[in-house]
Each structure stands twice: as structure tokens, then as C-alpha cells.
Amino acid sequence: MQLPWRAAPRAALSSPLTLLVSIATTLLLGFVVAAAALHSSSAGSAALAYQQSRMCPHSVHPSLDGDGMPLAAAVEMAARSDLGAAYTPIGRPDFNGLATYGRFGHRPDALSHLTVVQGGGTGLWVPQTIATAARVQIGDRLTGSSLVVTAIYADLAQPVSGWWCSEAKTVVPNPLGGDGASTSVIWVASSSDLALLPPEFTGYATVSLRFPVEPPATLAEAEALRDKGNARLTSLGLSLTRTDLLSGAITAARTAERNVSSALLPLVIISVLVGLAGVGTVTVQWAQRRHSELRLLWVRGASPLSLGFRGVLELGLPLVLGGLLGLVAARLLLPLYAPGVVLAAGTLWVALGFVLAVVVLSLAVTVLVAAWRAHRTFQTQARTRRLSLVPWELVVAGLAVVAWVRLSHNGLGTALKPGSLPRVDVAALAFPLLVVLAAALLATRLLRWSLAWSHHVRWWRVPAAQLAVRRLAAAAGPVTGVLLVGVLAVGTIAVGSAVAGAQQSALDSKSGVFVGANSTVQVSQDIALGRVALPSSLRGNTTLVGVSTGALVVDPVTFTDAAVLSDAPAVRSLLSGLRRDGEMAQAVRIGRSANQEIRVPGLPLLKPVASLPSFPKLGTRGYVVARDSVPAAEQVGSWHLWSSLPLSALTSALQAEGIHYTNVADRGRVLDGLPFLTVEWTFGFVAAIGVVLAVVAAVALLLAVEVRRRQNAVSGALSTRMGMRPSVLWSSHLLEVGALALLALGIGSVASFMSAGAAVPRLDPAPWLNPAPMLPDLLPLLGSMVTCGALVVVVAAWLALRGVRTARMGELLR
User: Keyword Transmembrane helix on this protein (predicted)?
Assistant: First the structure.
């Protein structure tokens, strides 16, 4: 039979609500699959950017280094790179007969990256430390050479700028090292000037070849740069040590991208199945609305499959349009849900392919559901067995138990080592989401049973509640659907936000325990002996800590001003009680350390009198002793300044007072945060999917109210004509919609908080470091969800009452 092909698309316009629902359904489907593709690609680019932020800018391109060669050969090699440097061995340059340790060097444009203290020009640039020690002045000539001093510059010190980062080991001296172990560099303006140096500086030279490039934005660009760079170094044919840090960054970024993709795949599949179920529901509603027309076509000889294609003719264009709009929304909203905005080349085409795939699946579901509906309606009787009789919540609960076993035994799925990325165990990662899904399924089944039994309820003393229950029971199908999606939305948002927030706080707390404070530097024992005073700007935010093998020497008065502690008052009280009794000093035992007297080199005999589970720098093993209990500060292994200030502020204050330091540590850079970021990005997308589900639940609720507008108008208008006050009717609708919202919020919150609370401590990318991840404060999130839910409830109740206020009884009765 010839179907009415031309009339079908126009016929869809007669049901604008069905059109909107069809577009919205595939829009969300398209958004989920496109966002997953874009998120995975941006995760790889973001991981690469993070790894590069921890590298020296001049080390992005593969580089070469060498030493122990003649100076002339080093100069020749340095000239073959874009930014080559040559350094002489450390010697004793003589300017006025007061020789001190120093070395000479040349690096193109080095003089413009130095801070001039005195002079300038194109002669020798002497560091201030050497100029002070050797009494060098502008115009002095280097003994045995024609080179003349034209400038004195401020010594380079950690942390250095990015331009000096790759040369830090050579150009930044260790002021606490032995004489001649390291020194600042006396710079020459031209590489040819190195040939004018005295003979003792012409052997055992050092060379570094750097190739400055723009940092690659994507993994493909990084791989091309790595391959091109290594080929370039091979073509130079130099027998130098090659350093290729970019390869490690690429490998880590690839692993992060793969972990995120594999972790998101099950969630995306479940979302697609839910979306396709929504398409099937829309198709069933379309078939019900077109029942008369479909019956007429069937009587005239149309097969069920033909009637299925009739549904595609009417719903196909909205489904395709919705999928494309989903792709556009995923691209425009990328900054809101993805870790970055840089995408690999061709990612949008991949996302478009996924969108087209789900659109094709949606069209196929439309055909099959419409055909099945026609077959069941016109050819066979409906079977009594239904999928609703299957205890799906028990099946999902069983999967949650399996996931919990995997999670409790394997954590993220691998026995991790420091510096390695976790290979995410998808089954373990899915545990909190499976708990939420099981709770949602159980809640919908209980609600369905309760609504079926609700006709026994007699609450006419509270007419608002009685009417609310009756309306809920009359729309049991849409009500249970809204509850299911609502619980999933609330639970998914809470789980994603909880795990992502826990990873952020875990990285911060672990790095704090690893370093001890926000920033630390090693200083000489002169500060501990009182020969050098601490700068006034560091008082109140900095403390002096001694480090010996397995023990810390702390000042109880100032330690809590700088150290990273979870309970500073308790630690201060505990430390202030430590005393020394003769040859024995009281100490705090940390974690698993032996509870017995112990001898630590450089310290008196330690006797544990109290214990703490963990301590900054020591972790879960070691001892803490008060500084007053140490008789000889010079016998302590090393002394460090711990500060709550950023590293740059700490070092600037020390440099201003001329205090030497070395071995700097910054809390923000001491740990590789990529393993934490990988898990955070994964669950950040989970939270984004939760927001999508929340929008679906809100729209479904509002649409369900709008679909029942005529029914609500009739019942409401008759109720008011029979004497019911408008306030009671308003309360009734608020109770009806508010009960659904409250159930979704309560069940989703409880299920997600409990499951996330059990899973978060085991989702630890660095289990060898304390403390374990902890559930963050979720009250702000809960408050925002309550506010949004209340807003949706008010809008839904207003929509329900709008028809009552504008209803005309004559038209309704007619």
C-alpha cells in the first residue's frame, strides 16, 4: 500500500508537544555521546598541558647535554643548536689577586635575563657573590686575559624563571655545599670571548643544546614534535646525552585519556540505553495518539513494519534535529564540563559520527517500537508477562556487590608505584553509581506498589493530601518515571561531585604532608645556633625544623604557624608538653614506630610519651622531639625553614636579608597530580551527566503536568465550584509535586552519600601517602539541589493551577 509520505511530516506539527519531547530526547542523547568524545579528547590535551607545566620550557623539545670536553669543542657544539650554552670547569679566576671559585659561560641572550646591580656593556658580567668575595669592581681585568669586567649582576637563586630552568643545576650555586662544588657563572657577551680565557679554563667544559619551541597543544602535535626533534638530534651526530622528557609526558597523557575514556564508556552506554528507552516511550505515546489513523492503514493492508516507518516519517526529522542540537550544545558547553578546551584534530568529526550513530539507533527504535505496538494492538493480544516483574533492583544490587569486592581489594585496579598512573578498574569505579541505580529501582517499585494500594487511603480530613495522592495514583507511570530519573540525577551529581572534590582535597593534603608546609628551604645551622636572625617578615608564618634520620626537631611555639596540620591546637598542646630529663628527651611517637626508647644520631636518647597517627614530613613512621631538648644544634642532620607562604615569597625574604638556602620544595609542585586529576576528570563528567539527568527529570515533570492540563483544569474547576478554597488546591499541587521531589532528593542523597563515603577512601591514586581521600563537605551541594528542586516544584504547581484559573466551565463541560 502507498503510505501518505508527503502528509506525514506536516502531520507532526499537529502535536507540538510530541515534537518538542522528541527533539529534547535525542538532544540529550546527542549531547551525552558527543560530550563523552569531546571530554576524552580534552582530557588528553589537559593532561599533556599539565605535564608540560611541570617541565622546563626549553626541555619540551628533546635536548642534548655533555661534559668533560675541550672548551673549543663545547663552543662548536653549542653553536649547532637554537639555544646552546658552553660552560668552563670551576676554577679560581683572579681579578685583583683575591682569587675565588668561579666558572665562565656563554648562552645567547643570557645577559638580558640577568638583574644588573652595577654597570652593563659587553664585557665580563660577574655575579655579586664573586664580586664581593674577590673585591671585583667595574673595569677590573681578568688576570691572564684581555677581558674586562663591565657589569655586576645579582646571583641566580631558586626558584629560577622558565628561561633558566633547564640550566639551573649549572647556573644556580649551592651556597651550603663545599668550596668548589658549585658556583655562579661569570658570563661573557660572545662565544668567541671564551677563547680569550686563561688556559686553566679550557678543559673539561660542559655544553647544553636546547631547542626552544612553542609547547604543543594536542597529543598529535606533541608526538610530531618528539619525532621531529629526535630525528634532528640524530642528524647532528653528536656523542652527547639525550634527554627526551616529552615522551614521558605523551605516555602519561595517553594513559590519562585512555583511563577517562574507559571509565566513561559504561556510563555513556547506560545513558544511551536510557535515552533510547525514552525514544521508545515517545513512540508509544505517538502510536496511542495516532491509533485511529494507524488502524485505518492496517485495515487497508499496511503491515506493522510499514506502520513503523510511518512513525519515522513523522518523528524522524525531530529526532535528527535533536541529535545535531546535542552536538552543538556539547561543543558550546565544553568549558563547563571538560578539563580543557583544546581538542585533537578530527574530534568533532568523531563526535558527529557518534551522534549520527545514536540518531540511527533512535530511528531504528522508533520503527521497531511502532511496529511492535501495531502488531500487538491489531494482530495479537498483549501478553501478561512484563519486564516490570523482573527484580531489576536485585540484579543491579548484585552487580554493586561485585563492584564493591573489586573496589575493596584493588582500589583503582592496580598496585601503584610513585609516579605511575592508575589503570582504572571500571567495575570498581562503578560501585557508587550502581548503588544509586539500585536505590532508584527499588524506590520506583515501592512507589508503584504504594500507588496501586493508595485507593484505600482516606485522608479527607486533609483534602489537599487526599487529592494529591489520587492524582499521583492516576498517573502512576509518569510519576515512577520521574522519580527514577530524579533519584539517578541527584545521586549522580552527588557521587560525581563527592569523588571529584575528594581527589582535589587528597592531592592538597598529601602534598602538604609530603612537604610539611606550603614551602620549605634548607638553611645553614647558623639560624639554629642564633648567629643569623630570621627576617621579620617571616615571623608568625615560618618555623625552623631540624631533620635527622627518622626524627624531626621542632619548635612547639612556632611549628603550628607553618606546618600543614588537621588539628593544630591539639598538636601544639602535645608538643608543648615535651621535656628533657637528663640524658633522655621526651618524644612523640608517630604511627607504626616502635614504642620504646631509641637512639637517633645527633639527638639525645628519645623516650616516647605520646603518639600521633601521622605527622607532616614523617608520614606514619618517626619521632618528634622539641628543639629545647636538643643540646647541640650543630649535630642535627639538617635544618629547614617551613613556611605557610608561597615559595617565591619565602625565598624573596631570605634573599633580601642575604640568607643562603638550598633544596627548595613547593607544595604545589612536589607531587605529580595527574593520577588525581584523572579520577577527578572522570567523576567531573559523571556530575555533568547528573546535571543532564536533572534537566531531564525537571522537564519530564513539567511536561507531565502540562499533558494533564485539561484533566487538572476540570477537576480543579469543579473542586473550586464545590467550595474548595484556592489555597487548598494550591497546597494540594505543592504536596503532589513536592512529594516526588522530596523522595528523589532524599533517596538520591542518602544512597550517593553512603556509597561515595565507602568508595572515596579506596579511590586513592597514591595509597603510599597519607592521608587517604576523605568525603568533602557536601552541605553546599545539598543546599543548591534543594533550592533548585524547590524552584521546579513551585513552577510545576503554578503550571497545574494555571489551567484552573483560566478555565471556562461551559467549555470544559462541553
Answer: yes
